[in-house]
Amino acid sequence: MQKLKGKIVFVSGASNGIGRSCAEALAAAGAKLILCARSFNKIEDLSKNLRDLYNTESLAIKLDVSNRGAVDKAIDNLPEEWKKIDILVNNAGCALGLEKLHEGSPEDWDNMIDTNVKGLLYLTRKIVPLMLKYQLNGHVVNVGSTAGIFAYPNGAVYCATKSAVHFISDGLRMDLVDTPIRVTNIQPGMTETNFSNVRFHGDEEKAKNVYAGITPLTPEDIAEIIVYAISAPPHVQICEVTVTPTQQATGGIVYKKK
Ligand code: NDP
């Protein structure tokens, strides 16, 4: 059965990793998709593949979520029928660098704060009013992180951005309590995607090492949880899901097999 038949889902950061797996799982569940990322070719190819595989209708939008003007324009320019967005998956995000705060790169900090916090706010500010206008049983799914609950050494700014996602999710849930709109914060632990490659600015050796000796989560594991949360009956709000590989207890406590 296609649990999400006809629902319109906006996925940010759909060109890779968790966002891409979400798009695939959502298409399989019958959703119509608006996919955004900065790498237009990747989302355009994904959009075509999903059309061939699942007969999904989808729009691919080149968008840098940290650019407020571009976010406003992208949403304002959607064709009228695509503005009835039932579900927003705020997934676009990044960790940049792994170093002591006092030795870190302010440029990396700006990038993380602008993407992980401000980008999520900009999209939410534009899309939630549409959910209200069209009286939809809307749903905002934010991709936070275990880093938003447990800080770890050399990751202070990334952890702070994900902690912000945690409290933005809680605050938004309060602001929307008198509406049918649900808010879910998904907090994954170590998930093998392009994330560590981005963090280490393309150093593949370092990136691979992060997952050595453990069985990490896959982006498909997270996508499955997101589809589950979205597909719950309208009176069921899954506020928060924290999920880690079995070998990860908290952010920094990881058992690595030698
Ligand atoms: P990836 O690097 O594989 O994917 C990140 C996605 O975000 C890409 O599609 C990228 O697309 C997009 N993106 C990044 N910056 C922007 C931007 N400014 N505007 C639009 N899109 C952007 O990493 P993950 O899939 O792992 O990350 C997805 C989310 O999951 C992030 O929020 C991350 O913090 C979170 N997370 C990841 C964990 C992990 O261990 N992997 C653990 C916990 C949370 P493009 O470059 O084309 O713009």
UniProtKB/TrEMBL annotation:
Keywords: Oxidoreductase
An MF annotation (GO) of this entry: oxidoreductase activity, acting on the CH-OH group of donors, NAD or NADP as acceptor
Gene3D superfamilies in the record: NAD(P)-binding Rossmann-like Domain
EC number(s) given by UniProt: 1.1.1.381
Membership in a protein family: Belongs to the short-chain dehydrogenases/reductases (SDR) family.
Full protein name: NADP-dependent 3-hydroxy acid dehydrogenase YdfG
Organism: bioreactor metagenome
Taxonomic lineage: unclassified sequences, metagenomes, ecological metagenomes
